[in-house]
Amino acid sequence: STAVVAATGIKTANNPTPCLLLMPSGRVLCFSWFRDSGGYSANVRVHYSDDDGASWTLGTDRALPVGVAIGGTPGAGASGYDVGRLRAAYHNGSICLVSELKQHDTDPNYRDVLQQWASADLGASFTEVGNAWDGGSPDYGKYHEVLSVDDSIFLFYLRGTDVRSRKIGSAFEAFETTSETDPAIQARSTIT
Questions:
Q1: What is the tens place of the pLDDT at every residue in 22-57?
Q2: Low-confidence ranges of the chain (pLDDT < 50)
Q3: Quick one: DSSP state of residue 125?
Q4: Is-contact 146 171, C-beta < 8 A?
Q5: Between vectors from CA 175 to CA 109 and to CA 180, what angle results, nearest 5°?
Q6: Angstrom distance (rounded) from CA 90 to CA 21
Q7: Which of 49, 114, 138, 158 has the fewest CB atoms found within 10 Å of its own CB?
Q8: What is the CA radius of gyration of the chain?
Q9: Element spanning 183, H or E
Q10: Dist. CA 77–CA 163, nearest whole Å
């Protein structure tokens, strides 16, 4: 196989963590973090391919309305985040994007934040929906995945060694307003 370069000369965030999303039309979207020239803010860049990944076009270089502050270093009371994993799902004409962030503030017991975004224009721009959680105990998790199945969007994540999940019906519904559920129960009742 041949390597495909989506773009050259861009400044990715320290951890660009690209995410691919196959759309019903066959278009492939690639979401990745990039940082501004000063390195103080990160935003999501969206590339797309209509030829199975043989070539890529920049759709937008700032999909989020406001960048995520990434300047500074971790410490007690510090501001800013380290950006992490991006995951997306297409659902009923909208895209649900969940980003993993780690707070620079070392005071909270759990520094991980999962931030939720939604797009009604196929990824050209996103609106902040909320945080699945913001580092407060006992809600925390890592290594998330987002999956659309039938009439629901699922957020799966690890809490320690346990798999947990939350379920919403629309990309614009906040995961933070739903209760955590045992994914085995959801899978048996939802996925056939």
A1: 999 999 999 999 988 777 899 999 999 999 999 999
A2: 1-12, 186-189, 191-192
A3: -
A4: no
A5: 65
A6: 8
A7: 138
A8: 17
A9: helix 183-190
A10: 30
> In which residue are the tokens 């971790």 written?
74
The type of residue at 185 is I
Round to whole Å and give the CA distance between 112 and 79: 14
Do residues 48 and 29 lie in contact, with contact meaning Cβ atoms separated by under 8 Å?
A: yes
| DSSP structural state of residue 89 | E
DSSP E strands: which ranges in 70-183?
81-91, 94-103, 112-119, 127-133, 142-149, 152-159, 162-168
* Assigned token pair, 166: 């939350």
Q: Minimal CA–CA distance to 122: which of 26, 51, 8, 55? A: 26
Residue 24 CA to residue 22 CA, distance in Å, equals: 7
CA dist 84 and 63 (Å) reads 16
Model pLDDT, residue 140: 74
Quick one: pLDDT at residue 137?
A: 56
Cβ(83)–Cβ(110) below 8 Å:
no
Q: How many residues does the chain have?
A: 192
* Signed CA dihedral, 18, 118, 171, 54: sign only: negative
Cα separation values, 140 from 110, 137, 157, 166, 183, Å: 7, 7, 9, 12, 16
